[in-house]
Amino acid sequence: MKKLLEAIKANKTLLIVLAIVFVLIAVVVIFYDSDESVSAGAVADKSATEIKLEAILSSIDGVGESDVYVTEDEEGIEGVVVICQGANNIMTRNDIINAVSTALNINKNIIAIYAMN
């Protein structure tokens, strides 16, 4: 036990450096895991329909980045909300309405489009 205490006293600087490195590694691991769980949760919350619609809309000229939310019940789709960068352009809005209506085989009056911040 005395040898251990003498070794600790002799290598204080080394122990302090090792402690700092350990703390830094712990902090990085904690923050990395929390960021990963947030992004995985966001993707898990999206339905397959929403993911497919976002892919379709991203390929339309002028739409830009988009988020799609689909409300469904047992009988079918009740409504679709599209939030995108190109929503301020009337032609782009028309293209979005036509694409969503055709892709989901729904009435155009249950599709709402809003501009993204």
The sequence of SSEs as H and E is HHHEEHE
Sketch the major β-sheet. Answer: 3 strands, mixed
Q: CATH homologous superfamily of the largest domain?
A: ANL, C-terminal domain
Low-pLDDT ranges: none
- Proportion of beta-strand residues: 15-25%
Largest sheet, spatial ordering of strands: 1-2-3
Query: What is the tally of beta strands?
Result: 3
Q: At the first level of CATH, what is the class of the largest domain?
A: Alpha Beta
Ends distance: 64 Å
Q: Please tell me the CATH architecture of the largest domain by its name.
A: 2-Layer Sandwich
Explain this structure:
- The chain folds into two domains: 2-44; 47-115, ANL, C-terminal domain (GMP Synthetase, Chain A, domain 3, 2-Layer Sandwich).
- The protein contains four helices and three strands, in the order αααββαβ.
- It has helices at 2-10, 12-45, 48-58, 90-104, and strands at residues 66-73, 76-84, 111-115.
- A three-stranded mixed β-sheet has the order 1-2-3, covered by helices on one side.
- The model has no long low-confidence stretch (mean pLDDT 84).
Please specify the SSE layout and strand pairing:
Elements: H1 2-10, H2 12-45, H3 48-58, E1 66-73, E2 76-84, H4 90-104, E3 111-115
Parallel strand pairs: 2-3
Antiparallel strand pairs: 1-2
Key traits:
3-stranded mixed sheet, GMP Synthetase, Chain A, domain 3, 4 helices, 3 strands, single chain, 117 residues, alpha+beta, 19% strand, 2 domains
Short précis:
The protein is built from four helices and three strands, in the order αααββαβ. It has about 120 residues and is α+β, with helices and mostly antiparallel strands.
